[in-house]
Amino acid sequence: MITFTKTFLNGAVAAAAMMAGTLQMASADVLTMSSWVPPTHFIHTDFLVPLTEKIAEATEGRVTVTILPAPLASPPQHWELARTGVADITWGNFTYEPERFVSMWFAEFPNAGTKAEAQSRALWQTYEQFLADNSAFDGVKMLAVGMFGGGQLHHGAKAVTSPADIANQKFRMGGPIQEKLLTALGSVPVAAPATKAYEMLESGVVDGSLHTMESVVNFRLEDVLKHHTVFPNGLYDATFFVAMNGARWDGLSDADKTAIEGVIGEGLSAAWGKNFDDQSVAAVEKLTASGHEVVEASPELIAEVDRIYGAMVADWIEAAKGAGVSDPQAMLDFYKETYNSLAGE
């Protein structure tokens, strides 16, 4: 009788434990993430996967994130996927929707910096202070913002260091700010995604292409881009987001929201930037070791870019006011001062 009772009680305890575990799993929040880079890309392996792990750890498994095996839409549609709740979490490029995110243009202009971690932290602080209540960002919970550490100029056949070198040359580019910059420099911009760069260069459709140093390596363009012109403060940049559907965020428990707040924001933005910094350093080392020509832009070319930059800022200030930014110049100044301070640490 005693043996039977012990057996029964042990079994009941085990069953109760199993039921409690099942109920906990059933009540857990499982979030879906749509990503558009392959699982071998460093953004996936070194940034997105660690983010899912941090969220699970911070919430003690109550909130988990599943990265879907294929993107739910094209890269430019990923903001809408999060805003409308088709996916719970997405990441993407503000550049893909330039009219919606006029307020972000300032960070994609020349001279935005070349240290991605400092840039990304400065952009997060700028977003929080100046843009968190802007209607362009309605419908989402912003988890992080990021930049990539300064895009540069790359050519397949020659070093480009002066304004004369760039005139009439055809360059692949990826957005309206890059298009305006190249046109003002007297070159011919050709719009195409970075994934098309190799075939365009190999076939002679373009002479060069705009990229970060890391993307020359990560897009395997070393054979067709052997000359790299570096602008000390960056020729252009791109701005990125990691966003969660606002209603889905609001539906989490207060305890889980507090826990997740500890692994997002400026810290997550810094992690984004650090990954790009690490990749860029490795890329420069690899390209240099392979005999590629890496040169600085001449003072004349830098001065010409600075002149164009001044005109771009003046135009943007008016556009940003129309997009609901009360003092665009103050926002730009805040970003620059914050970046310079963080970059000097």
From TrEMBL:
Q: Would I find Signal among this entry's keywords?
A: yes
Which N-terminal stretch is annotated as signal sequence? Answer: 1-28
Instruction: Please tell me where this protein is predominantly located.
Output: periplasm
InterPro entries xrefs: DctP_fam, TRAP_DctP_sf
Q: Mind listing the UniProt keywords for this protein, alphabetically?
A: Periplasm, Signal
Localization terms from the record: Periplasm
Q: What PANTHER family does the database record attribute to this sequence? A: BLL6794 PROTEIN, PTHR33376
Q: What is the protein's name according to its record? A: TRAP transporter substrate-binding protein
